[in-house]
Write the structure tokens for this entry.
Amino acid sequence: MSQIKHVKACEILDSRGNPTLEVTVQLASGTAGWAAVPSGASTGHHEAMELRDGDKARFGGLGVLNAVANVNNILAKAITGCEASDQAAIDHKLIELDGTGNKSRLGANAILGISLAAAKAAAAEANMPLYQYLGKAKTYKLPVPMLNILNGGKHATGSTDFQEFMIMPTGANSFRNAIRMGAEIYQSLKTVLKNRKLSTNVGDEGGFAPPGLNNREAIEAVVAAIEKAGYKPGKDCFIALDPAASEFYQDGKYVIAQENARLSSEQMVDYYSKLATNYPLISIEDGLAEDDWEGWQKLNAKLGKKLQLVGDDLYVTNTKRLEQGIKLRASNSILIKPNQIGTLSETVAAIKMAQQAGWTAIVSHRSGETEDTTIADLAVGLSTGQIKAGAPCRAERTAKYNRLLRIEEETGTKATFIGIGAFEHLKK
């Protein structure tokens, strides 16, 4: 009995203290699934639209009571009686009912909450963990974590121009050891910053957010932390960057305020090339602005065989934009955020399209998160090989890593940690 019987949404708080919504989907058998929807700070213009109330008397206008009402009064009626196991049909009905290209009428947050909760209910009904229900495979890949240990940009006002400085412990032989390495390097960075008389306050995603650093100084601090923790940069652990370039793209130039520089696309590509030469980089996400297609092509042509080049704002988990990127050879990787597109079916389609093109697909959190761990199961179920979930700090971040630790424990030999193998596409 997998028919949907009852759908209920309510307003809750995310990790930034802003409202979001959670949705519970109950089946005729009594089995239920629950999901909570995250929210981004650095958002792409092409993302599906989350619905906010705009009532300045509540949460400064950020309330989601309208989205909650859309779930309870409109969307719930449409899917009551549907088979929870038919994810494609549920998601199609939700999209059709909204009727807009970006889910702005009923809200991508409202739609995603139902989509994920329905999948969880169906998995529970099938007596399967979510990753198994999504993948239905005999073996799985445990992802290499991207741990954001130093925050800047929109995630930490007054810090670096670049938004995220991450570590990837590719030299570990298990996910458990990768997380241990990441946590040790994170604590080591705290000591490095203290010794340099820099702040150890943390940003939205749990990484340290010292003001006054430029991008190179931030990378050098992370390299020092890797070494201080007893690991070798470029062998045991690599560095990944998320500049979030759309945020500092102004009037056709990339404005790096800490270095008093205004760079063209070509100069920005050269900037990254020098960083890759001087530091143990393995991945750059959103290195250029979301509509700078020509710049992205130049970036990929120059660095695509050496670095993973990840489109986030460029693709927004949208297969139409991803298809364009594949045709143009604009990058070699896509970041996957379910709330950028609004349904599980569309999220899975983007992952599979990237994988079929020989690209990587990195499942990611948002800066405004909840304790929901769906992305951990998604990464394993679809064998993406990489996950981005923030620093090994703050419960809404560690919840995802802890979920992966439990998955590793229960899957045993059925799941492998692929380490540096996650970057096989760079050798092709």
